[in-house]
Specification:
The structure holds two protein chains of two kinds. Helix content of chain A is 73%, strand content 0%. The longest helix of chain A has 23 residues. In chain A, helix 1 packs across helix 2, helix 2 crosses helix 4 and helix 3 packs across helix 4. The longest helix of chain B has 24 residues. Classes of the chains: A mainly alpha, B alpha+beta. The interface between A and B is large, with 48 and 31 residues.
Amino acid sequence: MDLSKEKELIEEAKKNPEVFGLLYDEFYKPIFNYILKRTTDIELTQDLTSQTFFKALKGLGKFHWQNIPFSAWLYRIATNEINNFYRKQKRIIQISLDKIPAIPSEDTPEKEIEIAEEELKKKEDFIKLQKSILRLEPIYQTVITLRFFEKKKVSEIGQILAKPEGTIKSQIHRALKELKKIMELK
Amino acid sequence: MREEELIKKLEKIELPEVEMESHKRNLKMALLSSNYFKKPGIFEVFVKPLAFALPVLILLIASTILIPPKILEARALEIAKANPEIKKLIEEKNMALGEVKIKDDKAFVVLNSLQDKNSEITEEKETVPEIKIKKVEKDSSDDAEGAIVEINLKQKEVAKINPIKSDEIFPLANQEKESAKEIAESEEIIKDIIPKEATIEKIQSSFPKEINLIEKNNEIEAIPNLVDGKKARVHYILDGKRWIIKVNLEEKRVEEVEYFLENHDIKDIKEDIKQDINNQEINIKGRDLLNSDKIK
């Protein structure tokens, strides 16, 4: 989706739920899988994805177009949610139930979660690697995931984290150095 | 492990890619049915804002109804006092600002005539029975005796000065005029002061002590304050001379004689009055008055 179309859609989405639905359909999967790569936990990913989209919807009215893709804004919200979660080191999702409605459970078959977990288990190497990545500081986890798993360019990571490219480059460099140390210790 | 090897490992590692269709669908439903997209109901549109606005509204109404009228009245008086035309009326015609009435964004202020000083009095004395006799420098019988000043409060300026003459606003009924004439003619002193040849030019209502303002049919109207009774003025004229007999219609008595004598020697008038009163053999008190310093 080109940026001008995306801008139009966002303005329309502020008032029209159907248009917001289109944006959601476009970005649900990348955001869900980004969170999954960071957490390697299906249920936690579902919760954090829900939180990310509810926060996006809540902040949509105040969203001002600054030539940064909508996806970058969503990645930023998701990153904040993940990092907040790890900062608190709790598996309790900090959401107020009156603000975010519960997702009906009868339509979320356990089987779907089981299938997803099976699929995840097949990626044994990734899970092992992720265990090492999880020992990094949240910002290093973020840049490693965005750069190598989400295949984002340094400039795109800069947009997501609202930081200059130079900062991102040095953060990636330090993150790799730290990760190397952790992996060598094993 | 070298850094390049780590990078290669990170780049080539097989990543999990999961589809969660039911979660995606359910989350979408939850998002789209959230409060964000709910159209505001009647409560949100009217009741809720009203609940917030009500205290402000009450304050506004209270401040409009209760506090400002006095402030507006004071402001109106200030505007009137600053107007050069009104200043002149106050100083030269000896008028005074009176009642103020606020209507919409206008203020109406009464300019009352301070009657005794309406025109320059050169001589004044009292007789028995108590009748004031005074000579004035000029005939002011046709002058405006008061005014209603209209002030535009928004523009903070005097919009109009409407002169008022008592006879135009509070005219006398024919019966009242007849009564005034009878009272004047029956007064012995008056008979002596005014030559027999003098004729009645007009009989008009006397300017009340005070004018009040009332709102009637969405208009501001002047009404006389008749606390000291309804009064009439009987105008006698002869050869450029004018005598105005002020009659209290309720007490049925003459209160005052005001006279103006065009090109007439003031000494002659004094003599006239002295002669008139002496001829009437009025009581001692009256003569004492005449012998006092007031008339020499």
